[in-house]
Each structure stands twice: as C-alpha cells, then as structure tokens.
Design goal:
alpha+beta; single chain; 5 strands
C-alpha cells in the first residue's frame, strides 16, 4: 500500500469593507465570533500589513446588523476590550 501525503488546502476568507468615503478594501477574516452573554458579534481581520517587528497588524470591529446591512463599529467599552484581548491571546497560543 502506498503512503500518500495529504495536503490540506486552507482557503482564506475575504470580506469587502466600504469606507465612509465609498472606497472599498478587501481584507482577510481571521476570526468572527459572538459573546453569548452580550450577543455582540465581532470580527478580527487583517490587511496583511506588518509592523516594525514584522508582526501582522490585526483589526477588531464590532459587527452591527441592526440596519440590515452589516456595519463595522469600533470597540469603546473597556470591559469589552478585555474580553476581546482574551480571545486574541487564545488565538495567538493556537498558532
């Protein structure tokens, strides 16, 4: 019996972001999740930019679906940020 190597194809999830000025940017989704207690939905994404230490820059936004069309909002609550940082720490451990 032949030993075959299986290669896993990882497909990148992309989304388009429309800025207030109408410009459109394609970004790569790293993770989308919801906190069950608050029912708030978040997305972590990247534009594949790197900082001075060669780390990939990631962005976090709150997803607001109240108007039908999803909108990305900033995270302003300190408690929310702390919970999101916990998710980011767990994500970085997994890689």
């Amino acid at each position: 019996m032949e030993n075959q190597e299986v290669q896993e194809k990882v497909e990148k999830k992309m989304m388009s972001i429309v800025a207030e000025d109408g410009s459109v940017e394609e970004v790569e989704v790293i993770l989308a999740f919801e906190f069950k207690d608050t029912k708030k939905e978040y997305v972590i994404y990247t534009k594949n930019e790197r900082d001075e230490n060669d780390n990939v820059t990631v962005y976090v936004s709150n997803v607001d679906r109240s108007s039908g069309e999803p909108k990305l909002l900033g995270v302003e609550d300190e408690e929310e940020w702390n919970k999101i940082k916990d998710v980011l720490r767990e994500l970085s451990k997994a890689e």
